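subagent[fold] <- orchestrator: predict structure for attached chain, return tokens only, no commentary.
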Amino acid sequence: MALAMNRDELSQYLKQVFPQVHKDFFVEDLTEDTITMRLVVQNQHLRPGGTVSGPSMFGLADVSVYAMVLARKGRQSLAVTTNSSFDFLRKPEGGADMIAACRLLKLGKTLAVGDVLLYSEGSDLPVARATMTYSLPPAGSAAANFG
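subagent[fold] -> orchestrator:
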């Protein structure tokens, strides 16, 4: 399946639907099956001990799968997370941005499943792994036409 939005169109749409956090997340790369996103780590993303907080990492994983679904399906901003599995593997670096490497595993009519590896920028070792499942609004519904 081809992309419904390219990298620039997706970035603009994310800025439109998430104005409160659009400066935190950036689309680095986008293909038909993968997306690479960046969390610009700032003080509000850190927890005591100088590491990136779990909620910040979860947010990056969640927005990465969401963005991949949007890139493939188009402007369906009401797709929602229905399940998540998150494994914390090692301590992320507090002074480095977080990079998410996301692969869309399934894109069906009602569900999408993505797998995400999170890295501290500059490291080849993943700090976390997430699997996210999204429920997609039915085609033709008011939710599917939002945005």
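orchestrator: received. Logging for downstream: The mean pLDDT is 91. DSSP finds two helices and eight strands in the chain.
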